[in-house]
């Protein structure tokens, strides 16, 4: 019976090597392992690539048909994810004898397309534009100190998506929530620090933005409290509001939803803090009404990785202006005709002055406000700011007064009510 020669295991071509216990050869012969010919290159159709909860790990979902025909792992490192199996690696002691030449670099990672969810704003890779500014706690007082540390209170603002099923179809506010978070991030990452604007401390990956914790009450709570505010306190609030808003406007950005509820008064100190810039728009944008086709906010997220370093947050070309809180929203916004968002902020500021002067909340019927009509008794009880408030509440086409820093009032000015 002839002796077997060069019997080689060929069941797994990726790990082909000669097994000494299965080979019979003369002592003078040196046998080389037989290498199976690599299989022809196959293309894998990827259905979805998503980032898992484990940082830098991807989940690759293939089409069902391909999934049956290809025994590929669903998980791989973000640095070695192989969407197209270009390599047929051989491992073992005789690997250097294989003539198959590998490529110089591993297969590229799949392109990361963020999911259509607001949390994707803060997903990997988190843009450096959302990181904390230099010395973010410079204007904050620590709540406690240790031997080698300082402790600060803060709040985390995260997206809250609501999904409803209507007539068998799922509806979500994810797109609008994303628009608001992007608008707020633009304000916080564009403006220089200001005492009348809530401090931005950075972002938490896959969570949200971090803001300073403000101890105090809303301006609404302060205005309706009794005893009523003193004259000097009203003027101080007027000046702080005007200072913060003009600082915001100097960067060609509006607030968009200025109201008694979006202004915080800290305690102690009675410092005004502007909050909630989710409806902020740029003066350089082209405005669309809320009922128009919404601008897709996720389109900018797909391109954020290619944003030049000198332009860390590009201004969108089109933005929608949404009505704010009643009755502070400007009539032109309610009609969908706003062409100057900063001038609309002036209307909101004028309505706040009326509430501040009267020490009570006011209301205007929305169908009257759309027509630039004001109640006849709106200014009843106004002593300090009536004339100025009337100028801020004019029609936008009839010389409405703009917000200017030089309009700040000196405390105790005898002619203040005439300005």
Mean pLDDT: 77
- Could you say what the CATH architecture of the domain at 215-281 and 321-419 is? Orthogonal Bundle
CATH class of the domain at 215-281 and 321-419: Mainly Alpha
Q: How would you name the CATH homologous superfamily of the domain at 215-281 and 321-419?
A: Transferase(Phosphotransferase) domain 1
By CATH, the topology of the domain at 215-281 and 321-419 is Transferase(Phosphotransferase), domain 1
The end-to-end distance, rounded to whole angstroms, is 118 Å
* H and E string: EEHEEEEEEHEEEHHEEEHEHHHH
In helices, the fraction of residues equals 10-25%
Q: How many E strands?
A: 15
Assembly state (oligomeric) = single chain
Q: Please state the CA-atom Rg, rounded to the nearest Å.
A: 32 Å
Can you walk through the features of this model?
Among the domains are: 13-97, no CATH class; 215-281 and 321-419, Transferase(Phosphotransferase), domain 1, CATH 1.10.510.10. Helix content is 21%, strand content 14%. The protein has helices at 64-69, 174-190, 219-224, 231-249, 298-302, 331-334, 341-358, 366-369, 386-392, and strands at 46-51, 57-62, 75-77, 144-145, 150-151, 154-157, 163-166, 169-172, 200-204, 208-212, 216-218, 263-266, 272-274, 286-288, 318-320. The protein has a three-stranded antiparallel beta sheet. A three-stranded antiparallel beta sheet has the order 6-10-9, with helices on one face. It has a three-stranded antiparallel beta sheet with strand order 11-12-13. A hairpin with a 5-residue loop joins strand 1 (46-51) and strand 2 (57-62). Helix 7 runs antiparallel to helix 9. The longest helix is centred in the middle third of the chain and has 19 residues, at 231-249. The chain is globular. The N and C termini lie far apart (118 Å). The model is unreliable at 8-25, 50-57, 71-103 and 109-114 (pLDDT under 50).
């Amino acid at each position: 019976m002839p002796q077997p020669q060069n019997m080689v295991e060929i069941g797994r071509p990726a790990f082909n090597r000669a097994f000494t216990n299965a080979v019979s050869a003369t002592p003078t012969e040196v046998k080389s392992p037989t290498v199976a010919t690599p299989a022809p290159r196959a293309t894998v159709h990827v259905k979805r690539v998503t980032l898992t909860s484990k940082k830098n790990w991807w989940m690759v979902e293939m089409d069902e048909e391909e999934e049956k025909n290809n025994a590929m792992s669903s998980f791989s490192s973000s640095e070695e994810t192989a969407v197209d199996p270009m390599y047929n690696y051989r491992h073992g002691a005789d690997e250097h004898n294989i003539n198959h030449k590998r490529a110089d670099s591993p297969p590229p990672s799949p392109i990361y397309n963020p999911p259509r969810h607001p949390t994707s704003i803060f997903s990997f890779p988190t843009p450096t534009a959302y990181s904390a500014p230099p010395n973010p706690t410079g204007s904050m007082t620590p709540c406690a100190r240790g031997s080698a540390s300082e402790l600060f209170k803060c709040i985390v603002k995260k997206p809250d998506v609501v999904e409803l099923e209507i007539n068998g179809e799922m509806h979500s506010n994810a797109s609008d929530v994303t628009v608001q978070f992007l608008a707020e991030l633009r304000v916080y990452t564009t403006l220089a620090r200001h005492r009348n604007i809530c401090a931005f401390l950075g972002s938490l990956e896959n969570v949200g933005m971090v803001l300073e914790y403000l101890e105090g009450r809303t301006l609404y709570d302060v205005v309706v409290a009794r005893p009523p505010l003193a004259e000097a306190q009203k003027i101080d609030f007027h000046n702080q509001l005007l200072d913060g808003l003009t600082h915001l406007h100097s960067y060609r950005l509006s607030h968009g939803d200025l109201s008694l509820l979006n202004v915080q008064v800290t305690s102690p100190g009675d410092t005004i803090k502007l909050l909630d810039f989710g409806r902020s728009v740029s003066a350089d944008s082209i405005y669309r009404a809320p009922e128009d086709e919404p601008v897709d906010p996720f389109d900018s997220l797909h391109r954020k990785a290619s944003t030049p370093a000198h332009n860390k947050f590009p201004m969108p070309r089109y933005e929608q202006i949404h009505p704010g809180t009643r009755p502070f929203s400007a009539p032109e916004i309610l009609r969908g005709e706003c062409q100057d968002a900063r001038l609309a902020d002036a209307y909101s500021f004028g309505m706040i002055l009326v509430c501040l002067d009267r020490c009570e909340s006011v209301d205007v019927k929305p169908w009257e406000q759309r027509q630039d009509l004001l109640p006849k008794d709106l200014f009843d009880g106004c002593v300090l700011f009536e004339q100025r408030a009337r100028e801020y509440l004019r029609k936008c086409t009839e010389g409405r007064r703009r917000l200017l820093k030089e309009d700040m009032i000196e405390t105790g000015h005898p002619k203040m009510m005439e300005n």
